[in-house]
Specification:
Elements: E1 2-6, H1 11-22, E2 26-31, E3 39-41, H2 48-58, E4 62-65, H3 75-95, E5 102-105, E6 107-108, E7 121-122, H4 133-149, E8 155-160, E9 162-164, H5 173-185, E10 192-195, E11 201-202, E12 204-206, H6 207-218, E13 227-230, E14 236-237, H7 238-247, E15 254-257, E16 269-272, H8 275-281, H9 289-304
Parallel strand pairs: 1-2, 1-4, 2-3, 4-5, 5-8, 6-8, 7-16, 8-13, 9-12, 10-15, 11-16
Antiparallel strand pairs: 11-14
Length: about 300
């Protein structure tokens, strides 16, 4: 089995590639930066011809398209990376490995937007109404993938909710909080954790559970050509999450709200329905928060000590 992974250097990609290797799957990575091992560095990730040449050469049976931009001051970058990249890859797949490959495109709960008041559970049947460039561009990826599916391209479309785990990027709230806590442990800052709005509810999934679901979806025909929520179905208050993370440290730490950290657009409550996930895979998602938070701080400590994440 051969797998091609884009965005392998990112948070999800790091965990997925390690799992694929452990499963005995041959892996090739592709991205805009240099990489280790068997790697293709794109000259132009919006070039259908370049994607097609790579696919003809490597002939993957599985393609995991994880490349994306979640944070940028440049609005255009979201659409170049999150939408145009996927559109070019899909066109190349249709030319080359359409009959032999299954391709996974990672979606986001941001595609739903603000569910409003009342019954806020987010189902795959809900009409998307994204409010940010990130959510709009990820919905664009989903739409071009669904259009390709109608032309016979085999795609799976997990729509992941808030992904957490070791080595989260520091542009995410919990990744930044883990970094702050470790800095406190090293006496690099006062024992105060600076946070934003903690009165929101979110649905979380551990990245290690997520990649297990990815692999399962690739092998189940009933998952092809449809969006599937990857979530726990249980909203959790952000304040409780932060308190769990602080409790995983041995240092006394005070939590301090800084309103300058508030997001311009911050949905009060967002959680998903797990009905379709359970129907297709018999899967439920849950998190043991003390273990997860301990793992996140361990990874942040190792990063602080400049130890390779592969040694975690």
């Amino acid at each position: 089995m051969r797998a091609l992974v884009t965005g392998a250097g990112g948070f999800i990609g790091h965990h997925l590639v390690a799992r694929l290797w452990a499963s005995g799957i041959e892996v090739m990575t592709a991205g805009i930066n240099a990489g280790t091992g068997r790697h293709h560095r794109y000259h132009d990730f919006t070039s259908v011809d370049e994607h097609a040449a790579l696919l003809r050469s490597y002939r993957p049976q599985q393609i995991y398209h994880l490349a994306g931009v979640a944070c940028s001051p440049d609005p255009a970058l979201f659409y170049q990376v999150n939408t145009a990249f996927a559109a070019a890859l899909l066109a190349a797949i249709e030319r080359t490995v359409k009959a032999e490959a299954v391709t996974l495109f990672v979606g986001s709960a941001a595609e739903y937007g603000n569910p409003g008041t009342g019954n806020v559970v987010l189902r795959e049947s809900n009409s998307p109404s994204p409010e940010t460039h990130y959510g709009i561009s990820k919905l664009g990826q989903t739409m071009v993938a669904l259009a390709a599916a109608r032309h016979g391209v085999r795609v799976v479309l997990p729509r992941a909710f808030n992904i957490v785990g070791p080595n989260m990027p520091t542009h995410t709230a919990l990744g930044d909080f883990a970094r702050q806590i470790v800095a406190i442990e090293y006496d690099d800052r006062p024992p105060i954790l600076s946070v934003g709005n903690l009165e929101t509810y979110r649905d979380f999934v551990d990245v290690r559970s997520l990649i297990t679901i990815f692999q399962q979806m690739m092998a189940v025909d009933a998952c092809l050509g449809r969006v599937v929520n990857i979530c726990s179905g249980q909203p959790k208050l952000m304040r409780e999450v932060v308190e769990e993370l602080v409790a995983a440290s041995s240092c006394p730490i005070r939590i301090e709200v800084d309103k300058s950290r508030y997001k311009p657009i911050d949905v009060p409550t967002s959680y998903g329905s797990t009905e379709l996930l359970h129907e297709l895979l018999g899967h439920t998602v849950s998190i043991h928060w003390p273990n997860l938070c301990a793992d996140m701080l361990k990874a942040a400590r190792l990063a602080k000590m400049a130890i390779s994440p592969s040694q975690i």
